[in-house]
Structures are given as C-alpha cells and as structure tokens.
Amino acid sequence: MKRFFVTLALSATIAGTGFAMTEGVENEAVKARMMLMDGVKAATGTLGAMGKGEMAFDADKAGEARQALIDHAAKIPAAFEAQEMDPKSTALPAIWENWADFEMKAQAMGAAAEELDTSDLGWVQAGMGDLGGTCAACHKAYRIKK
C-alpha cells in the first residue's frame, strides 16, 4: 500500500509540474514527443486521481487510460529515435548514448500498463506502483532534473 501512495504522489507531482509544456518549443520533432509524453501524463493522472478518490472510479475510463498508456509506450522509441533537441526539452543526451536501455524502459512501461487490471479500483491501486516505478526509472536516467 505504501508503494501505491508513493506512486500517487509521483503522479500528482508530474501532473502538477506540466513537465512537457510545448509552448515556445520550436523543434517539431521535440514538440511531437513532448505531446506524446503529455498523453502519458494525462492517462497516468486519470488513473492516479481514481486511485486517490479525487475522481469516481469508472472501469471504462480506467481501461481507456490503460490502453492509452500501452499505445503511447509503443510510440516512445520512434518519437525519440532522432536525436533532436530544443532548449525547452528535458530529455538528456543519455537517451541516445544508452539507446537499448531507453527502449527497454519504454517497453517496461508498456508491459506494466498491459498488466494493469482496470476492472476494479483495488486492482488499479495495486498496479500503480509497478507502473509508476517504470516512469520513475526512465525519468531518473533520462530526464533533466528540475
């Protein structure tokens, strides 16, 4: 249960900081990948809000958020394949220096999302720890700390 609340706190922090603000981003490839990550943030935020009781649990909406995470995770490697940068980007060059590990982390996020059972609030809460852990692992290694 402790892991669930840590994950919820991480989700709230990510949602509150708006880590992928695209305003002022000139590089279109960077803007596209930031928008992709905003989609991850939105889906995670939906599941986190349900888990914290800030939003009524809705199995259909939870399932849609889960599917969005699966879809976005599959697109992450292609979105980052070109080593494009922008002053507003929080991506570290380590992504391209450790490409195989970066891809593996994106796949781990997709796998955690696939394993997430959204049929019941308790299962969503139980699975958020694993999902949040995959996000945190990638951000720790490949995102500029703010």
TrEMBL record:
Superkingdom of the organism of origin: Bacteria
Cited PROSITE patterns: CYTCII
Protein's UniProt keywords contain DNA-binding: no
Residue numbers binding heme c: C135, C138, H139
Keyword Transport among UniProt keywords: yes
Gene3D superfamilies referenced in this protein's UniProt entry, alphabetically: Cytochrome c/b562
Molecular function via GO: electron transfer activity; heme binding; iron ion binding
InterPro entries documented for this protein: Cyt_c/b562 (IPR010980), Cyt_c_II (IPR002321), Cyt_c_prime (IPR012127)
GO biological process: electron transport chain
Post-translational modification, as annotated: Binds 1 heme group per subunit.
Keyword terms: Electron transport, Heme, Iron, Metal-binding, Signal, Transport
Record's GO cellular component terms: periplasmic space
Pfam family, one: Cytochrom_C_2
Annotated signal sequence range: 1-20
Name under which the protein is recorded: Cytochrome c556
